[in-house]
Each structure stands twice: as structure tokens, then as C-alpha cells.
Design goal:
The chain is built from six helices and eleven strands. The chain is α/β, with parallel strands linked by helices. The protein has a nine-stranded mixed sheet with strand order 2-1-3-4-11-10-9-6-7.
Length: about 220
């Protein structure tokens, strides 16, 4: 019996959520998942359906989620359904819902310099998500985020100079995993454009991360 995943896309269109949903649908189907793709947050209201999932992938930058919709999502993850996503689709959703941010483990604050070439530094080469990976270069937005110190950080990027309030240099988590109740949560901060996943490392880390979240 195949594992089941739900991808819910919408919100700000600048992150091409429909195209990213299609890309992730293809990726998960290749791993043997049965995938449902929805463009409605009401998908989080069906508690019985959510309970039968292995993985939820949100792709919803900004926007608003109702208390009932969030309660359904939160209960599913808390009970053991995995949660995994990227960039603003998961790390800049529902800015007014701090409980959602607590679940994700971080929240977008800004992207100094906009799209820039930078190095992703692998900080844990033994974790299943990043095992055997070397540092690699990406040309995309670097997310400056408020981050939960309880996250298990797997990769970082660096801000320096005028990009840092007060100057100096700052190391920012860009890939992490965490637990939320019984649920596994994975996040990577790249994904401003589907092209971000054309690189082998960027796509492979997310593939492994989603599989880890889905147990």
C-alpha cells in the first residue's frame, strides 16, 4: 500500500505555487506516494483524511488560515503526520498565526540582496538528509529568518556587512528538521523559483527531507 501525501498550494502567486506543487507531486510519485493536490485550505478540515496521510506539503506564501483549518493541520502533525516544505510556501505562510510558526520552527523576516549567488554550508554530514553532501552554490533568495533554537540544523548560509542589523557576520540556518508532537517537520529555505531545484544537491536534500518527514 502506497504512502499518501497531500500538497496544498495557493497564497501569493510570485512563488509559483502551482508549478512547485506539480514538481513536488512528480517527485513524491516517483517515490511511490499516492499524491493529492489541493488549492484549498479547507483540505485541512477533513480530519479522517488527514489522519491517513504520511506527509503534508504546504505551498502557501502569506495568506490567512482560519482557526479551524489550522486546528486540523496542527492536530494531524501532532499525531504523527509528517510536514515538509520550502521557502515562503512553508516558512512565510500565515504571518498572523504564531502557532503555525511554532510548528514550522521559523518565520521569514527578509531576503537581503534579493537573488544572489551564495554557498549553502552543510553542517551535519552524517544525518540521513544530508549524508555525503558537500557544500554547494545556489543563486536564489537567502532567507533571513527568526528561527526556533530547538531545531536540528543541517545546513546554513551567511549574511555579512550591511545585510546584518548592526553589521558583522551572521550564520543563518537554511535547512532544519524538528519534531512537533509525534510529527516530523522538515524545512529548506530555498525554492523562490522551481529552477532552484535543478541543482542535484538542492533537489536531493529536499527529496530526502520529505521522505524523512513521512517516516
Amino acid at each position: 500500500m502506497s504512502k499518501k501525501a497531500l500538497i496544498v498550494w495557493g497564497g501569493w502567486d510570485g512563488h509559483k505555487p502551482k508549478e512547485c506543487a506539480r514538481l513536488f507531486e512528480t517527485l513524491l510519485k516517483a517515490e511511490g506516494f499516492s499524491v493529492e493536490v489541493s488549492d484549498s485550505l479547507d483540505s485541512f478540515l477533513d480530519k479522517d483524511k488527514l489522519a491517513g496521510l504520511s506527509l503534508i506539503v504546504p505551498m502557501w506564501t502569506m495568506g490567512e488560515i482560519t482557526g479551524e483549518q489550522f486546528a486540523g493541520l496542527s492536530a494531524a502533525v501532532n499525531s504523527g503526520v509528517g510536514l515538509g516544505g520550502v521557502h515562503g510556501g512553508m516558512g512565510d505562510s500565515f504571518r498572523n498565526n504564531s502557532d503555525y510558526q511554532m510548528m514550522v520552527g521559523g518565520q521569514f523576516v527578509g531576503h537581503p540582496g534579493n537573488v544572489v549567488s551564495h554557498i549553502v554550508h552543510i553542517t551535519d554530514r552524517t544525518d540521513p538528509i544530508t549524508a555525503g553532501m558537500n557544500d554547494f552554490r545556489l543563486e536564489t533568495e537567502r532567507y533571513y529568518m527568526h528561527v526556533d533554537p530547538s531545531n536540528v540544523v543541517l545546513a546554513t548560509l551567511t549574511f555579512a556587512g550591511h545585510e546584518v542589523p548592526g553589521g558583522g557576520q551572521l550564520v543563518m540556518p537554511t535547512v532544519w528538521k524538528r519534531m512537533y508532537g509525534q510529527g516530523r517537520v522538515f524545512y529548506a529555505s530555498w525554492g523562490h523559483d522551481p529552477k532552484d531545484f535543478e541543482g542535484v544537491e538542492a533537489k536531493e536534500i529536499v527529496r530526502r527531507g520529505l521522505l524523512w518527514a513521512a517516516k
